[in-house]
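dumping this here before i forget
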Amino acid sequence: MDNEYNVSTISYSESEREIVRKGIHAIREVLMGDDANKKRSLLFALDWFMDPYYKQDHYITNFLNELVELLQTVIITSNDDEVADNALNLLSSYAWPPFEILENNINKVSERMKPYVLEVINMDNREE
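structure:
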């Protein structure tokens, strides 16, 4: 029996970087839109901007709180678990609870994502 794997490649270009540089309104337009591939590409680009290692985080400093709220909203509204998972990974890597939007809307998170979301919500309660 042949195993078939569905592997998608996510990439981003200068176009996605420019969206981030335009600010939270341009980011929101893509992340709340209907194109899952554009969302995945933009979330991948956001990783570059949010990771202090790359020294690009100055582009998002002025709207970081709004971005964290937007990522939470993407998680609770997305019909695509891959998009929600990518947004959750950004939160868990570059932000810190409380994540009130997630906490108050945990019932809107897909059942598959719920354990991961709960882990991120509670990551400040973990013992070192």
